[in-house]
């Protein structure tokens, strides 16, 4: 019961991360990759290949929101918050595990009966 709020936040963070990954992989990179492959097949010179590849990279960066400084900063902050939350959650769970390991099993039942 005491971890339900943090569990809910964890689930929302995971949902955000999964959706961001899905968007970048399947809505941006994969379709642009197929377009690049078609364009590379039609290229006649090395300069054409380089130009098509650079165009692919630019388009992917823009569509993944990595070209806009404001969006990039917001995305970096969101991801940093997720990492910090995960680190703190891991530390709390380690502390809880240590307390439970140091507490005799019989006292767990006694504490529940006392409530």
TrEMBL record:
Parts forming coiled coils: none
GO biological process terms, semicolon-separated: cytoplasmic microtubule organization; meiotic cell cycle; microtubule nucleation; mitotic cell cycle; spindle assembly
Cytoplasm is among the record's keywords: yes
Compartments, record wording: Cytoplasm, Cytoskeleton, Microtubule organizing center
Superkingdom, taxonomy of origin: Eukaryota
Every Gamma tubulin complex component C-terminal domain range: 5-97
Residue stretches spanning the membrane: none
Family label: Belongs to the TUBGCP family.
Protein name: Spindle pole body component
Organism, as annotated: Phaeocystis antarctica
Taxonomic classification: Eukaryota, Haptista, Haptophyta, Prymnesiophyceae, Phaeocystales
């Amino acid at each position: 019961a005491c971890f339900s709020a943090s569990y809910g936040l964890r689930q929302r963070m995971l949902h955000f991360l999964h959706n961001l990954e899905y968007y970048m992989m399947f809505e941006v990179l994969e379709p642009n990759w197929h377009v690049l492959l078609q364009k590379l097949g039609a290229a006649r010179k090395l300069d054409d290949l380089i130009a098509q590849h650079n165009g692919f990279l630019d388009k992917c960066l823009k569509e993944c929101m990595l070209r806009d400084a404001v969006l990039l900063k917001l995305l970096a902050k969101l991801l940093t918050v997720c990492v910090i939350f995960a680190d703190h959650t891991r530390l709390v769970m380690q502390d809880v595990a240590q307390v439970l390991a140091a507490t005799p099993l019989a006292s767990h039942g006694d504490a529940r009966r006392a409530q």
